[in-house]
TrEMBL record:
Name of the protein described by the UniProt record: Ribose-phosphate pyrophosphokinase
Cofactor note: Binds 2 Mg(2+) ions per subunit.
GO MF, one example: kinase activity
Active site: K190
PANTHER family reported for this sequence: RIBOSE-PHOSPHATE DIPHOSPHOKINASE FAMILY MEMBER, RIBOSE-PHOSPHATE PYROPHOSPHOKINASE 1, CHLOROPLASTIC
Annotated source species: Aeromicrobium terrae
Superkingdom in the source lineage: Bacteria
Pathway where this protein functions: Metabolic intermediate biosynthesis; 5-phospho-alpha-D-ribose 1-diphosphate biosynthesis; 5-phospho-alpha-D-ribose 1-diphosphate from D-ribose 5-phosphate (route I): step 1/1
Amino acid sequence: MLFSGRAHPTLAEEVANLLEVEIVPTTAYDFANGEIYIRFDESVRGCDAFVIQSHNEPINDAIMEQLIMIDALKRASAKRITVILPFYGYARQDKKHLGREPISARLMADLFLTAGADRLMTVDLHTAQIQGFFDGPVDHLLAMPILTRHVKKKYGKRDLTVVSPDAGRIKVAESWANSLANAPLAFIHKTRDPRKPNESKANRVVGEVEGRTCILVDDLIDTGGTIVQAAEALMADGAEDVVIVATHAVFSGPAIDRLKNSTACEVIVTNTLPIGDEKRFDKLTVLSIAPLLAQATAAVFEDGSVTSLFKN
């Protein structure tokens, strides 16, 4: 049985259509003081439950709604509860940069476990080790096959260089390079003040980018400052074109204006988060993550292999 919160119903409907199932009818509303009420309109006793909810703005409401749904399923005697998180909220807070800071990504995992989740399924975590925060199976799905398919089709005949926006994403960029016929690698050396969120400074480009089409890859775009600075640095170093690719389109604050006016020729993202008409612009390409979520859900339900989805 597939259940959806109110954060991203369009994606849930896409997944349901691909699985040829109906989303379980749910009564959900907010009380006057902001508290959330959830009740499922049919029996869930003994079912294999999949609860899909993206953690988009307002992020804390989306998380709390999903936790309440899990609790309702546990108390209604669901046999197994798999939580589908296309975007895992608080994933960037995965370690302490300064003293007296929380590790909120671990807290999130603890909350889902306490609520009654048996398994987590998520897409492109900010850092892969977050899988170890949850005391149970975690299916870490990769959007890279969907994104690389589009890049190969559109830019495959050009001289490509895969670029990481910082040294920390080099492993991901290496995987991209391997999938793009062993394209050369480059990265942006940048500095960031841990006391100033969403701010960084691109210092210099490390690698050969002159006369090449640069595929600038990251897991998410929030305010767009880091990725746009990186694109400008690449063009200043003689790149022919820059294509920005990210899985999660958070698009906070000035992100749309920055991306729209950036030197990049295309911005490619997936629909792990809802992207309204007000957040769309000419350079933007949105690819659907629903087929990946549907295949993984079917594999988990049938006790099949999720890893085999990424063999090729």
